[in-house]
Amino acid sequence: MRMFGGATQEQIVLVLALLLGLVFAVGLPGFLTTSNILNLVRSVSILGILGVAMGLVVIGRGIDLSIVALMAVSVAWTLQLITAGTPLPLAIVLGLAFSLCMGAFTGWLVAYVEIPAIFATLAMGTLIYGFGRYFLFGLDVINMPDAGRPLLWLGQGTLLGVPVPIFAFAGVCLLAYLFLRYTKSGRYMRAVGDNLLAARITGVPARPIIMFQYVLSASIGHLAGLVTAASVASMNTRVALSTYVYDVILVVVLGGIGLSGGKGGIRNVVVGTLLIGVLINGMTIMNVQYTVQNVIKGVILLTAIVVDTIINPRDEQTAQQGDI
Amino acid sequence: MSASDLITRWRYRLIPDHLVGEILTKRWMDNAIPLAIMAVVACVFASLIPDFFGAATISNLMRQWGEFGLVVVALTIVMVAGGIDLSVGSVFALGNIVALGLLTVAGWPVPAVVAATLGCGAAVGLVNGLLVGYLRLRAFLTTLVTLIIVRAIVDMLLLNYSVAIAATLPDSDIWYFFGEGNVLTFPFSLVVTVTIALALHLFLSRSRVGWHVLAVGGSRRSAHNVGIAVPRVICATYIISGTLSALAGLLFASRLGGGGADTGVGLEVAALTAAVLGGNSLGGGRGSAAKAIIGSITVIILINSLVRIGVSSGANSLLLGSVLLAAVAIDVRWLKNRHKITSKVYVSPTYAALPTAPSTDGDSPYALNDRLRDVGVIGLGSIDGPEDVILDSEDNLYVGNRTGDIIRFLAPDYSQQEVFAHTGGRPLGMAFARDGSLVVCIGGMGLYQVRPDRIVEKLTDETNRSWFSVVDDSRLRLADDLDIAADGRVFFSEATVRYETHEWAVDCLESRGNGRIVCYDPNTGLTRTVLKNLVFPNGICMTHDGESFLFAETWACRVSRFWFDGPKKGRVEPVIPDLPGYPDNINRASDGTYWMALVGIRTPSLDLALKMPGFRRRMARRIAPDEWMYPNINTGCIVRFDESGRILETLWDAGGDNHPMITSMREHKGALFIGGIFNNRVGRLKLEGRDVSWTGPSSYWAKS
Amino acid sequence: MRLLKSCLLAAMFALASGSAMTQSFDDPAREPYYESLKGKRVVFVPLAMGFDLTEGWAAGLRRALEPLGVTFEIRDPNWSTDAGAQAITSLITEKPDLIVAHNPDVQSYARLLKKAEEAGIYVVQINMRSSYSTDAFVGIDYVNMGEEITKRLVSRCSPANGGSGKIAITQGVLTAAASAYQMQGISNVLANHPEITVVSNQSADWDATKAKNIAATVIQQHPDLCAIYGFWDVMDVGTAAAIKESGKDIYLVTEGGGHRKDCDGISNGDFSEVAVYSVPYQTSDMVAMIKQLLQLKQAPGTTKTTLFTPLTFLTKENMTAASCWDLP
Q1: Mean pLDDT, range C234-252, rounded to an integer
Q2: By three-state DSSP, how is residue A279 classified?
Q3: Whether pLDDT at A187 is above 50
Q4: B340 part of contact set with chain A, CB < 8 Å
């Protein structure tokens, strides 16, 4: 017990991921090949990008349940615009602008109207999907038109033998890390997440910072959406109504970013993504049925949380009220 | 009176401004916005959809609501205890598939199916409860994971059994009754849900365990510290939630009988929406069954109606999202600003014109003097706020203090003091009953008596509720002074029904008739209000005829007489209509006249302000309470008057050294004992030419 | 300007019809035909709007029925079985003349459709049948389709023809008629072909993302996979992406309504073959059934008609510009 005394959730998850990787490497032929490792990372890189976006919001003590809906709608609109003949760069910029506007609106709802983030983003997710379906496009699945072919490189191309989505993930991670570590607003964001009232009293512009979180997550989400659309050559907006966003939250929280805000960093997202990636890839090779995979995934996630709680028990006296 | 004064007076008499504030402070106002949203949603769709209120439509809606409402109630229980249960949707699907599977594939009888399904739900709830309650995992994350696991289990069950389920139609009347039957024209699921919601309401509001649940939600740490078994309570909420969700799934199964893979997908979001829309707060501390019901009705109307209107699926989501955002935004703003609005509008002054104040100069009976200069002090610095003073037949002196004790100073020199009794409230007026018990008005508590053996007993703390009063005036908030009639009936004044004891001075700003006189009859045990709409009634003193008493209305600066018996029964007559100050306690003097304390002297500025209610209201709204204009209670005097209202003498402390502030006085064996609510002493003044054998108790009770 | 134009048109029309009247040369079938349809109300309850099949049917029905004075409405449950059931339940009380129902699975609507017929509403089921047969069913014979597609896969993948004999199946919702009956057809054929192994048979809930995950799994497990049999083109866009990412040559047969994207999918190599049940064909079948039911005026539930849509296979070879249809 004491041996793990100082272990954080991040370390536990990392150890778990490495252990699993070790077991798979020994037990499964073909796990520890370069192509499989690349495939592993590529398969979770979109999840990872979204995880970074969500992680930034969660560090600021928010949560963004609209991220998937926004990404689906903004990218579907981009594809729709391209189909209708808008030049590719302009279409991407318009889609991004839409994303930013919606992100700012969500942020405004959370920061100024003071609707709880979980609820504001939940409703915004529904609203954005509805808005997109009603005003921007008519079908659930928008296919990548021929004019958008250059985009496909983002999802299906390779650079130095490494798939481009991995670079996208790495780039987003690096930028987000630098942002949190070195920029003023990055540090403010952590301060707001740690203790909103204290941050406000010390003169941090708390509300603009909260708004900024959602703008940030919207823009990263747009990138993730472009990569998604590029990798399957279409955008399925139904993903907005699916439970995909839960996977994103899991990656974030599993890595050790507490939902109560202020704690954790990009490293945690990477670690959480890694565990999920190893898990899914291993089970894929082991020929586990898709539904059974979900059960196993769930149980391992639960184990990770339980182990963390046993090693770092919550103290009844210091637990934050209303921290669910 | 000028015309403008007349208009002002009638305007404030006719328009009951104070009701706004009183309505805002009602507990049920908490549900007002969710209820209003529900009404608006219902009205909008009723106007858009023909036959919205048709019997069949309503019946369908109610049946669907039955299932959904059950899930919302389940979620509410967990939310009230400060958690969240995202797995409700998956458990709902699990209940659906388990019930169908057992019924059709395994061929179990219906009661066994019901028991097994509920057992499944409870088992998932138990897992959640153990993890969140005992291992203290984070609820959001944990139930998110159980949502995924249970959903995957449902998928596996579907994979194996869905075809078999689809192939057989269950052959059981009870089963179809669950899904299609009615109890007294109400759909079965509705009856189940309403029953459970009612049970939940009683549980949360009336039972010990229910209070524990609320306490854990309100503050888990404090609940832990006061010894509530927090893990057990939390675990129980999840078990209940799982069971109810599975029950809802069972009802769904009996209605549709299909093992669709989309069953319960996203249900947790809809249920969460409903719970929050109804006013349950995320993170606990605020929630009720009523809120769950209001929220779930709103959401089910929304969802159902949007499908019925036949808008395209995009517009559907768009509308749903917008309505939810708008509703929650309104609710959030309302919650945040409600107490601000309340504090702004609760103080609601009215027009009050006082008669011209008599002079305190020259040959006026109120003329200033310095007769209290030589007052002796008792217990200087060791007594805090003796509002009333009284002496027993053994000459011991009793006073109340600010910390809730009744202090006894022992005769003959009163240098020794002891705590006679501890009451816990703010002891104000006192009187000795026939049997020697000390009857006390205790602010914040009611009417109590301290028996000679020092046992404190409650006489009464409530009176009859007025029919048309918005504030609940049945509880006694500020019992002030009392006196006891010869037959033992206790008449006591309650200064105001709109403010708590510590806010008594704010009542002056209103100067409305907020007070009343209440009678407690020990022979019947009944408490009844006898006089209402008095302006801060304060001192009460029995006259010598045994049929009436005198009472003072502080902010009205007058003394009146009320007959509670005899030929003039029920009548009120003015005795002194125009005092120069604010009267407080009245007590008998040895020669058949009465002593009265004036707690403060009127000032022209406040007298003028009382005629300008708009000015006082602006003051109450715009500036901090510390800056408000209050009545002067720093300097007062004692007057002696007779039943005709003639002032016989006045005692001032012009120097202000020993006893400037006076709220009460008692004559006892030729001396006057003086109390003051903000004083740190009791005064004693030797009176010249009085009956040195006369005591209060003897005056009341000697003859019998 | 436009007003003037339409006035002129109307006037001309009146003149023309007036001259026709004078000839009094009327078809006796016209009046009962128009009378029987005028003012009728038809409601379509799809799984969800927003994809080619339902949009195609809805557009076709609207185009055919509305000029005849029929009110055509859509109640969109947006993929929720419960919302769909709510919609039908409320329709039963609203009593339209005819419901076109698109079942999510064989069981969920069965009792409701029976009730609807009992309440005097004609029910036409489209493409996916419930366990209760109503006045009419228009759609593909899924058992036959399963058999036909499997036969093709068998001939392609059989080791005798140089295949690995390994195929994977990606179903939609397991309880949907489409899945249940097709599986029946598939096992009918496979029973005679033991050389073919089904290495994976999973449900993707009509979801492309799930389908992609499943396909990726299967392809990694079985690099020598010969073919994937997907149950729906929209979902199999995901399967196709997985195949593309794997870089392997896997034969993908999917099925769909013959929308333009099926042809696109074939031409850009996403799909190898598409089994098509033509949406325009189904729509005209439905329109015919609706017209017949409304004209015969029998009590709902008296007759049970089944109209199976002919099955065609679309490949790169036989595909022409006219093979597919576009949404208006």
Answers
A1: 85
A2: helix
A3: yes
A4: no
